Every structure is written in C-alpha cells, then in structure tokens.
Automatic annotation (TrEMBL):
Enzyme's top EC category: oxidoreductase
UniProt keyword terms in alphabetical order: NAD, Oxidoreductase
InterPro entries: Ald_DH/histidinol_DH, Ald_DH_C, Ald_DH_CS_GLU, Ald_DH_N, Aldehyde_DH_dom, DH_HpaE
UniProt similarity note: Belongs to the aldehyde dehydrogenase family.
Molecular functions (GO terms): 5-carboxymethyl-2-hydroxymuconic-semialdehyde dehydrogenase activity
Pfam family, one: Aldedh
NCBIfam families in the record: HpaE
Organism listed in the record: Rhizobium laguerreae
The protein's name in its UniProt record: 5-carboxymethyl-2-hydroxymuconic-semialdehyde dehydrogenase
Domain Aldehyde dehydrogenase: 35-488
CDD domains: ALDH_F8_HMSADH
Length: 492
C-alpha cells in the first residue's frame, strides 16, 4: 500500500508540473484565454493539478480540427483502422498501472476495481476494432426491376461528453466505436476527474492516431459542454451523465439538429423472491450497490424483498455491508473509497438525513467515516422499513446507499419496480423460470439480469428506457448511432 502511494505520487508529478492541458490538432495546449481550474483528490481534498478551462473558442478550434481530419480518417480502409485501434489497446495495456493509480487518486474509486479499468478500456478498443472492417456493410434488397443497396457512412465529427464516476472506462466505451466507425472526435470530460482523459488521447496518438482525429477540451458543462452541443460542425453528441443534463443537451442541440445518444441515471431494482438462492442474491445485491462506491449508473439502489424473507434477507445484507472495508483507494483491501467531491458527499449525506426524516430505519452505516487523508468517506448504508414513495426510493443518490422495500407478491413487486422515473437496469432473483419470463417481460428497464449481478457482454445492447436514456451502445448499435445509413436503388 505504501509502495502504491509512492508510485501514484510519481505518476501524478507530471500533472502537477504541466497541468491538465487540452489537446487540439495533435498539440497539447492551454485554454485560449489561459484560464485554469483546480481538480482536487477526494482522498485528502488537496489540489491534484490545474486544468485548462476551455470555453466556446477552444471548442470551436477543436471542432474545426476534427472537421479537417474527418475526410482522411473516414477514407482510411477498415482494416487499417482496425490495426490502429488494436495498437491503441496495446498501448493502454502497457500503461495499465499508471492509468489505474491516477484514476484512483482522481476519482476515489478503489484499486480493487480500477486495476481492471484499463484492461476493460483496452477490450473496448479491441471489440470495436474487430468490427471496423465491416462497419459500412449493409444489405441488398431485390425486387423485380430494382436492386437496393444499403450502406453506412460515418456521420462526421462527433462530440463525446462523459461523467466523473469511471471516466477512463466510459470514455473508451464511447470513443472506440466512434473511431472504428470513421468519425473524428471532440471529447469533453467531467470537470471533477479530468486526468485520465488526458492520458488516453496521448496514448492514442503515441500509437499512431493521426493528429486532429481525437481532440480534447476540458471545461465546465455550462461553457465548454454547452458550446460543444451547439457547434454546427459537430454532427452528433454521445453523452453519459445525469438525466437533467441530457434534457438540457437536447435543447442546446435543437438549433443544429444534433443526433443524440444518452446514457443517463438510474434507480435500479434488485427483486428477491423467497425461492431464490439467498446467499448468492445477498452477495450480488451488496456488490451491485457498494462496489464503485455506489457511484455507478447500473447500481441496484432499491432492494425489493418478498415479505416472508424481508427481515432475514435485509439482515444478511446489513451484516455484509458492515464488513465492507472503507479506506484509501490505493489500499488493495479497500472496497469503498472516498466519494468524488465534498459537494457530492454532502448530497449523499443529505439523503441519509432525508431517509431518517422520512421514517426509514438505518440498518447499516448512515455516517461519514474518518478515513485516511480525511477525504469524502461515507459508510455503506442500508435503509430498511422503507416504502417506494420515499425520496430515498425515488431519487438517484449515486452513492453507497441502499433502500430496502418489502413486497407482497409478483404483481406488487412489478408495480414497485416500475414506479420510478428511471428504467436502466433490473436484477431478478428467483428459481421460478416462468415467473422470471413473465416479470422480465413487463419490467421497465433496458437491461435485466436474472440470478446474476451485472455481467457485461460487449456485443449485447447497453442503454435505458424512460428517463435513463435514449439509444443503445454495444455491438452494432454503437455503429448505428455514429453512422448514416444510405440506400441506393438501381434499376435493372
Ligand atoms: P452530469 O450530467 O452532471 O455531467 C456529465 C457531463 O456533462 C460532464 O462532463 C459535465 O461537464 C457535462 N455537462 C454538464 N452540463 C452540461 C451542459 N449544459 N451541456 C453539455 N454538457 C454538460 O453527470 P455527472 O454528475 O458527471 O455523472 C453522474 C451521472 O451520470 C449519474 O446520473 C449517473 O447515473 C450517470 N451515468 C450514467 C451512465 C449510463 O451508462 N447510463 C454511466 C455512468 C454515469
């Protein structure tokens, strides 16, 4: 652990000296007006680095660079693009430790999970790299007197806007398919955790990505983010973040008729029936809310438990929650690290107070932890005796806080599960297969796991319904977003 801290310090040193610069047309550059903002570490609230504070003029430069680079990048044969994206994946793997340590110190996510973040990022590149050669292929439809040929072309320069929770992995998830499709990019990362976005573009260019294909502008949502969504050269916005930000982006992009793809918030239910394997269900429920500090869009933040086992099952969960190690993100034993920022910590602790005031019982946690460095540590928290009308059951807390609600029967479980504005994921635990079919058919969610925690398989669609999103990523769905479909009809 002490060794890890020393290594992290060494990796962070260059950011302290150079700051987190923007990256436009292949050059690391400060903001045009020279402005910066500080990013702090959630471990000790100390500044990590000054960050270039880009605004509309910086976005304009980046959009022009992406536009200039587009024709050559779009014209590159799919096989060549595939080879290059694999080189980027190799370069990510070669710097996996640096990425993990910097991500831990910038986000507060524990090394236990971040150690794999870089490898998952590399996997995202490899997955879409392999599909690049066929991305343009369509199909032909033949009728008497006519043959229709359908093809796809990259839509143009696109904007990618990402959140702070797992910035490295999420950036690769959005950017790799855009590059594989033949689009060029302007990336605006989240202001709370901008460090690894800088590494990522640097890694991509060191692997041979042509200048201007990938541009990075740091800044705040209301200036750099807004300008990106309004820029006429940017044809589409891939966005991951809060639902209300998605709604703003839709309005901002209206004048330029932006195509949008939204991965938004969630208040995801894990539904546990009495006939389930309760030990496995308890492990999975605990993993899905407390891993990644609960700062995870797919977290199972509502625990719906059948009446007959409610007391027993919530005790199993409480007992596990109390055993979770909260600590320094670089300590290999840590599961829950500090939350991203004091502002977010305040929000999470306010919800704890709201839950108590609403009459729910704190069965585990419910307090700030005095952790190493004095940062934003919050104990894994479980509320019992809750009902679905409470704010702690309706609103996305985005922290290690779980709300357990009893249900009577299948119909009641379904009603409670669907009674929220969100619909990202659902988790169902039962040994009754016919019930699983009935329930999953009616559950309002884009992704459902039966008798499992969230295990991602990249070719499957990822996305939400209701206020949780618009569109799907993964497999060919990502290409559908980043490409235009064209039909050519030949008379025969
Ligand atoms: P956020 O919406 O506050 O910010 C996300 C990004 O949008 C940031 O880069 C921010 O600067 C930018 N932004 C803010 N206002 C903007 C504007 N007006 N125009 C353009 N850009 C703007 O979200 P956050 O707090 O960074 O992240 C947490 C949220 O992300 C949670 O709601 C979580 O559920 C969601 N999330 C969703 C998924 C998913 O796949 N569905 C994955 C991870 C996180």
């Amino acid at each position: 652990f002490e060794e890890n801290k020393k290594k992290a310090d060494a990796y962070l040193a260059r950011f302290r000296i150079d700051g987190v610069l923007n990256h436009i047309a292949g050059e690391a550059v400060p903001a045009l007006d020279g402005a910066t903002f500080e990013t702090i570490s959630p471990v000790d609230l100390q500044p990590l680095a000054p960050v270039a504070h880009g605004k509309a003029a910086d976005i304009d430069r980046a959009a022009k660079a992406a536009s200039k680079a587009f024709p050559a990048w779009a014209a590159m044969p799919g096989d060549a693009r595939k080879a290059l994206l694999h080189k980027i994946a190799d370069a990510i793997v070669a710097r996996a430790e640096e990425i993990a340590f910097i991500e831990c110190m910038d986000t507060g996510q524990s090394l236990k999970f971040m150690a794999k973040a870089a490898l998952r990022g590399a996997e995202n590149f490899r997955f879409f790299a392999d599909r690049a050669p066929e991305a343009r292929d369509g199909k032909s439809i033949r009728i008497p007197g006519q043959v229709n040929v359908t093809t796809r072309n990259p839509i143009g320069p696109v904007g990618v806007i990402t959140p702070w929770n797992t910035p490295f992995m999420l950036s690769t998830w959005k950017i790799a398919p855009a590059l594989a499709a033949g689009c060029t990019i302007v990336h605006k990362p989240a202001e709370f955790s901008p460090l690894t976005a800088r590494l990522l573009v640097e890694i991509a260019e060191s692997a041979g990505l042509p200048k201007g294909v990938w541009n990075l502008v740091n800044g705040l949502g209301e200036d750099a983010g807004k300008a990106l969504t309004e820029h006429p050269l940017i044809k589409a916005i891939g966005f991951v973040g809060e639902s209300r930000t998605g709604s703003m982006i839709m309005k901002q992009g209206a004048d330029t008729l932006k195509r949008v793809h939204f991965e938004l918030g969630g208040k995801n239910p894990v539904i546990v029936f009495a006939d389930a394997d309760l030990e496995r269900a308890a492990d999975a429920a605990v993993f899905m809310i407390y891993s990644l500090n609960g700062e995870r869009c797919t977290s199972s933040s509502r625990l719906l438990v059948e009446d007959s086992i409610y007391g027993k099952f919530t005790e199993m969960v409480a007992e596990r929650a109390k055993r979770i190690k909260v600590g320094h993100p670089l300590d290999p034993q840590t599961v829950v690290g500090p939350l991203i920022h004091p502002v977010h910590e305040r929000k999470v602790l306010e919800y704890v107070e709201i839950g108590k005031a609403e009459g729910a019982t704190v069965a585990a946690g419910g307090y700030k932890v005095d952790g190493p460095g004095g940062g934003c540590y919050v104990a894994p928290t479980l509320f019992t005796s809750a009902d679905n009308g409470m704010r702690i059951a309706q609103e996305e807390i985005f922290g290690p806080v779980l709300t357990a609600i009893p249900f009577k029967d299948e119909a009641d479980a379904l009603k409670i599960a669907n009674d929220v504005q969100y619909g990202l994921t659902g988790y169902l635990w039962t040994s009754d297969v016919t019930r699983a079919f009935r329930l999953t058919d009616q559950l309002e969610a884009g992704m459902i796991w039966v008798n499992s925690e969230n295990v991602r398989h990249l070719p499957t669609p990822f996305g939400g319904v209701k206020n949780s999103g618009i569109g799907r990523d993964g497999g060919d769905w990502s290409f559908d977003f980043y490409m235009e479909t064209k039909n050519i009809a030949f008379a025969t």
